[in-house]
Structure formats: C-alpha cells, structure tokens
Amino acid sequence: MRKILLSIIGILLIVFSIFLANQLIDSKSKPKPVKEKIIKTVFIDTVTNSTVPILIPAHGSLVAKRRLELYSEVQGIFKPRTILFKPGQEFNKGQVLIDIDASEYYASVQSAKSNLYNDIAAIMPDLRFDYPKMYQKWQNYLVNFDLEKSTPSLPEMTNEKENYFITGRGIVSSYYNVKNLEQRLSKYRILAPFKGVLTEALVTEGSLIRSGQKLGEFIDPSSYEMEVALSTSYATLLKVGEEVKLNNLEHTETFIGKVSRVNGSVDPSTQTITAFIEVKNDTLKEGMYLEASLNAKEEENAIEIDRSLMLDGNQIFVVENNALNVMDVKAVFYSETTVVLKDIPNGTVILGKPVPGAYAGMLVKPFSSESNNTDNL
Question: Where are its TM segments located (predicted)?
Fold first, then answer.
C-alpha cells in the first residue's frame, strides 16, 4: 500500500512539474512585433510639356581657317633680315618672310636676258629693210627693255610672215626661257600672302636651305575653324550659317560661331559626318580645345529629364496615390546627361531625383520643407 501511495505522489509531482514548466515558458513568450510600413520621402516634378531645343554636343580643337605651310623649291643660304623669322612674329601682306641668297642664279638670269636683247637687236636691220611696218614696234620694245626689271611681253605678231621670221631666229624660245628663269628666281624670296603670324620656324638665318625642305607654318589669326564629327542622323538638321555656342573647358568664356561648311560624304568607318564651325575672336589661339552646342531642331510637346531617371525598357517612375508606378515613355533624344521625352500627359507627377532601391508599389510621400523638419525632430 505504501509503495502505491509513493508512486501516486511521484506521478503527481512529475505532472505538477511539467505544468509549472509550461506556465513559466508561456509567461516569458512575447508577441511578435508588427512590422512598421516605411514611407520614403522623394523629390517630385509635375510634367508641363513645352518646346525643347535639341542641342547636339560636340568638341574639337581650333585650326586657322587660312594657313600656309612654307616649303622651299630652291637651294641657298638664308639671308639675314631686319624682321626675324621666329614663331610669333607678325607679317603684313606682301612682306618678305624668307629671303634666300640668289646672287649666282640672278647672274644666269641676267645673262639669258642679255642674250635675248642681243638676239632682237641682231634682227633689227633685217626688219628695217624687209619688214618696215614691223620695225617700229620692235624698236620700241628694245627701248623699253630694262635688264633690271621683269622682261616685258614680246610685241604682238600681226601676220604669218612676221611670226615665221621672229620664230625662225629663236627669239620666241629665248623669251620663254628667260621667263622660266625669272619665275624660278622669284622662288628665292617668299612673301606673305596675307596678314598673319608665324607659328612654326624650322630654319634660322645663315642656314643652308635645300629644295623641298619645310621652313615653317604661317597662319591668319583673325579666323579659326573647329572640325566636329556628328552622327549621320543629324545630317539633315545642320544648316550652313546657323549660330553655334562655344565654351572653353573651364566654361569661363563663351564664343559665338557659325556652321561654315558641312561635308557631303560620310566617314564609312565611324558613320559620322563632318561639320566645320567658324569662330572669330581676338582671344582665341590655334590649338585651343572648345566645346560646342549645335542647335539641331526644336521638339514640340516634350520634356527634358536627367538620364538617371530612365529605367530599362524606356520607362520612368511616376507617383500615383502616394506610391510608385512605372510608365512607358518615348525617348526622342539622348545627350550625355539628359534625355528628351514625348507622350507624357501634362500634370503627371514623376520623380525629380533617383531613389535607391525604388520599385513599383513602393509607398512614398513628396518632399517638402515641413516634412523635412518633422523628419529631423
């Protein structure tokens, strides 16, 4: 009987212990916290369609519109002059750039001119007796013949007899030989074809100049051109004479140029077309790097937004009922930082700045100064 009583007591103690343990466990359990909905504060913009100018960005270096590479066609010693042949030196039109010693060649030219004069003088007695009507004009030619000046043109031959007589005496061939020598003599002195500045000098006074040697470069600093390569899709939009806004790299100076030429062919390797922008300003220098904005056309009923707001598949986020949604849009032009969109109804509320981790259905609220102050409390 005692054993049965002890067994019943033991069983009761075990049951009581289990019950007590369950009570302790239940007392320590806490209700799961309800996840609070997070509402993101976002910047918004309201769509107002308008006319958006399409600006094509381009860049390039300035090159003088009129430039001259100086080469020598003769050989000789570079003669010293009062105006030095140095980079940065300015020359007026017609002023001597380079003077090469031509004393030896000049003597040969004078000899040939003297021979021509003697040949004409030798036929004068025959002309006086056989062709008296022709005598006077050839006599006047000899009187006006000056060895120190350029050889004058031969008198006009009025008939075949005169032509045969003069040609048969070798006078015509002697005349053209002299003119050829005089033409080559003029190449010993290189004159400035326009007012400009020397940008490169590869020879110095007293040096031996050889035929075919490059001597330097000469430019007109009053007008420059910038060559830009544009996509063929803009070929029909570019117009000669259209004004172009140019800026330096620091955007501290602005210049106004114009499209002077548009190449008629397309580069097959890059599928681009070349346009030339002419600009004039006293502060410009050859080789300066400028950025240009070409006015291609104006897109009506469109808006321009930051490219970072675009989603894959030509979509953007719109705000509807305090939540984000996606909308299909039509992009008509992309620049480096912006995109021009069409077919967005007026009054549509879109994101003004990108939101990290944004998704369709995300709860948002527009940014305002009041909400910003509340968030900071």
Answer: none
